[in-house]
Amino acid sequence: MTENFTLTLSCGQRPGIVRAVSAFLFDNDCDIAEHQQFDDSTDGSFFLRTSFVAGGSTDIEKLTESFREVAERFSMMYTFNGCSQPRVLVMVSKMGHCLNDLIFRWRSQNLGGELVAVVSNHEVLRPMAEAAGLPFVHVPVTPGTKAEAEQRLLDLVAEYEVDLVVLARYMQVLSDETCRALHGKAINIHHSFLPGFKGAKPYHQAFDRGVKQVGATAHYVTPDLDEGPIIEQQVIRIDHTHDPSRLATVGQDAEALALSRAVRWHCENRVLLHGHRTVIFS
User: Fold this and answer.
1) Strand 114-120 to strand 87-92: parallel, antiparallel, or no bridges (unpaired)?
2) Tens digit of each residue's pLDDT, the chain (282 residues)
3) Over the chain, what HEC string results?
4) Of 226, 239, 243, 253, which one is the catalytic site residue?
5) Which of 280, 161, 178 is nearest to 232 (CA)?
6) Shortest CA distance to 100 belongs to which of 138, 127, 139?
7) How far apart are CA 104 and CA 144, in angstroms?
């Protein structure tokens, strides 16, 4: 019986890295199924993602410990992942287009992750979540209860053993402390009109300015509001016939597509953080 694993790593560029990784996998009776690498000539960094098949007696802990000597030799930051799908918690407010899309892709087994719960500061989307068989947790948020609400979120992350939190149009700003607690494990989606169209009714602002493209950006959550490392962006061309209502519809399509791609790539270990940037092995 065999099992699929993925190795992702980053380090400084130098000769022999790929040879060392390949030799390690060969010596441990592993068969490489997919390999991608990227040399960043701007700062001399090297990134690698290799998926491979190993015998049934191989496990994550064994591989991680056995690889330590290779990693230390090249000063690597590395992670081995198994075939189990990451557990995903989705946060929403009142708009359900992104949640609906994530549920569809999850049910179609095309999301790459396992949806385990939906958390919201409103009750509006409870029927959608429960119709999909997902636990729905209502966590109201007011200025006076924000700290308690965020602690409740972190408690739910621990309770459901969550690997990834997805803000699927969750209309609350997380505190710096919560952003740091979820570093590299939380993805947000927003319209790509920032910073040109901040605040309420971005599609009305876009209409007034006669924009010709509607887009959306999926990024990791950081304390810098809507400025986290970008994972995916989707752009759809429009014209003068698009009123604010049609713009919003097109924008929602872009949001759903960009978010689902970002979630799938993260769950498949295809995203490597590189400072304020990302390396995507799509």
Assistant:
1) parallel
2) 678 999 999 999 999 999 999 999 999 999 999 999 999 999 999 999 999 999 777 889 999 999 999 999 999 999 999 989 999 999 999 999 999 999 999 999 999 999 999 999 999 999 999 999 999 999 999 999 999 999 999 999 999 999 999 999 999 999 999 999 999 999 999 877 545 666 678 778 878 888 888 889 999 999 988 889 999 999 989 888 989 899 889 999 999 999 999 999 999 999 999 999 999 998
3) CEEEEEEEEEEECCCCHHHHHHHHHHHCCCEEEEEEEEEECCCCEEEEEEEEEEECCCCHHHHHHHCHHHHHHHCCEEEEECCCCCEEEEEECCCCHHHHHHHHHHHCCCCCCEEEEEEECCCCCHHHHHHCCCCEEECCCCCCCHHHHHHHHHHHHHHCCCCEEEECCCCCCCCHHHHHHCCCCEEEEEECCCCCCCCCCHHHHHHHHCCCEEEEEEEECCCCCCCCCEEEEEEEECCCCCCHHHHHHHHHHHHHHHHHHHHHHHHCCCEEEECCEEEECC
4) 226
5) 280
6) 127
7) 36
Q: How many residues belong to the chain?
A: 282
pTM for this prediction: 0.92
Asked if 43 is an active-site residue, the reply is: no
